[in-house]
Structures are given as C-alpha cells and as structure tokens.
Amino acid sequence: MSLLEIIDNNIKSAMKSKDSVTLESLRAVKSAILLFKTQSGSSNDISSEDEINILQKLVKQRKESADIYKNQNRPELSEVELNQASVIESYLPKQMSRDEVSEVISQIITKLGATTMKEMGKVMGLASKELSGKSDGKTISEIVRKKLSWIGQVVQLDRTSDFGSDGWGFESFLGHYFSLINWSLFIKNLKLKKNDDAVRPNKKPIHTPIALSSVYRPKYTITGNPKIM
After folding, report:
1. How far is CA 58 from CA 52, 81, 96, 110, 133, in A?
2. What pLDDT is recorded for position 173?
3. Beta carbons within 8 Å of 81's beta carbon, 6+ residues apart
4. How far apart are the first and last CA of the chain?
5. Please, which contacts does 105-108 make with residues 24 or more away whose CB atoms are closer than 8 Å?
6. CB proximity list for 77: less than 8 A, separation 6 or greater
7. 17-25: long-range contacts (C-beta < 8 A, 24 or more apart)?
8. Residue 202: its pLDDT value, please?
9. What pLDDT does residue 198 have?
10. How far apart are CA 187 and CA 210, in angstroms?
11. CA dihedral defined by 176, 178, 183, 188, rounded to 10 degrees?
C-alpha cells in the first residue's frame, strides 16, 4: 500500500472521529503528494525516498511556522503547527537521536578521511543519503560542521606546533587530552563517593570511581599528511 492510499484511509478515519488536527495535517500531505506527481508528470506511485522528502518538508514548514508564531507571542497558533508536525512525523521512519546521528557521521568522516571544512559537501552528501528519513537536514548539517571544525582545528594545531620535534606527536597529544578528561571524571566520582558515604554511612556506596587505567584512546592518527585512520 502506497503512502497516498494510507493517507486516504486515515483521512476517512479522521473525518469519522472529527479529529480536525489530524484531518488538516493529512489533507496537507495528500495535496503535497498530488502536487509532486503533477509536477513530475508521473501518474504512478512515487518512490519511498520522494515520499520521505515530502513529509520532511511539510514537518519543517510547520516547525518554522511554530517558531515564528512563538516569537510573535501567539502560542495558540504555534501549538497548532507543532501538533500538525507531530501528526505528519508519525508517517516518517523512526527518528534517530542526536547521539545516534553523531555516531553515524563520525563513521562517515572516518571512512572518507575528511579533515577540513572544504570536505563538508562530500560528508553531507553521504550523510544525507544514509540518514534519509531518520534525521532532519538541519541536525545533520550542524553535527557535520561541528565535527569537521574541531578536527580542522586540531590538525592545524599539530601542523603549527613543535609536537613532532620532541617526539610528542598528534596521537600522543590526543592521548594526554583524553587522559585529562578521564582524570577530571575520576575526581568528580571521588567527590560523589565521599558525599554518598556521608549520607549513607552504613550502606554500600552507589558510586564507583573510574579506574585511572580506563583512558580514552584517540580516534585519529596523523602521520605525514593529515589523514583520519
């Protein structure tokens, strides 16, 4: 069953239940699908990728309208737009969390060996294809930009520093950096343990200090020409 057929059936159900928000949302989806088919000159069912793009566009439009109404201090209209966005989103594949999207993008950057903002287009192309329907373009773009910017800064630091001259090197630099992070977590957990012992003197502490040997290993290694390994 195509998306249009599903929408038609659900429109009938919304009419019977007099659910105005769902009804208006589904009618908007149906109109967008029919408009797309007219513009593309196709009388057949459209691809699932096109369906996802249409739905994402409709959701984006309503969220943007909701922000505008919110800024104009018109919360009742903003709520209507958000409710419609929620109805339309229910027809999209399950959305990934920001952390899940970030992990996928990290893998893509590593796979492509991207180290500068100049390669953002290449990363975005693959990320948009792999995350199609699972995350919105704005979130993907923000994460890609942030990651490439950080990598670029670290690469530039390694190029302009004297790390290589004394044998410290980029990999060692990241190792020390993450070791410092782990040390701060260790201290934080010690404080939590101390506070917990004070509150629960006769019970086993629920917080366990992080072992100092549990050091984050650097994900990137640069030798000669900077390249993500």
Report:
1. 10, 10, 19, 33, 13
2. 52
3. 62, 63, 65, 66, 69
4. 44
5. 105/140, 105/143, 105/144, 105/147, 106/147, 106/219
6. 69
7. 21/80, 21/83, 21/84, 21/87, 22/87, 24/84, 25/83, 25/84, 25/87, 25/88
8. 55
9. 53
10. 9
11. 160
Distance CA 23, CA 29 (A): 10
| Residue in the block written with tokens 């201290």 | 187
Give the pLDDT confidence score for residue 2 in this predicted structure. Answer: 84
The structural domains of the chain, ordered by start, are 3-89 (1.10.1510.10), 98-160 (1.10.10.410)
Which residue type is seen at 57? K
Q: Which pLDDT belongs to residue 182?
A: 53
Q: Which residues of the chain have pLDDT under 50?
A: 163-168, 177-178, 180-181, 205-229
